[in-house]
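Section 3.1: Structural characterization of target chains.
Under the original work plan, the team committed to producing a structural model for every single-chain target entering the pipeline before any wet-lab resources were allocated. The record below documents one such target. The sequence was received from the expression subgroup and is listed exactly as submitted; it comprises 97 residues.
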Amino acid sequence: MQVWLGYQQSLRPSQGGLTLNVDLAATAFLEPQPVIDFLCRAVGLRSPKDFARLTPQQLRTASKAITGIRVRLYSLKILQLIHLACKMCNNNEACLL
């Protein structure tokens, strides 16, 4: 993970006219990596095969970890595997997709 610093600026109306508001901002960027590897690290699994035995707590952790992350799909086969894994979930609310 990398943290990038920058400035966020905006013009705001005030009683004396427009005011320039400048704030220091920081945002985190994740390094490009396969989603499975990212989720294994986030949940604390040793291998992707362990996804078959996730506890409800681990499913919630994985779901929170991937929320808001942009994922680029390179293969339809991967999507089909993820869809199949979701069908195997007992609790649809805890499913990742």
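Residues 76-88 form the longest helix (13 residues).
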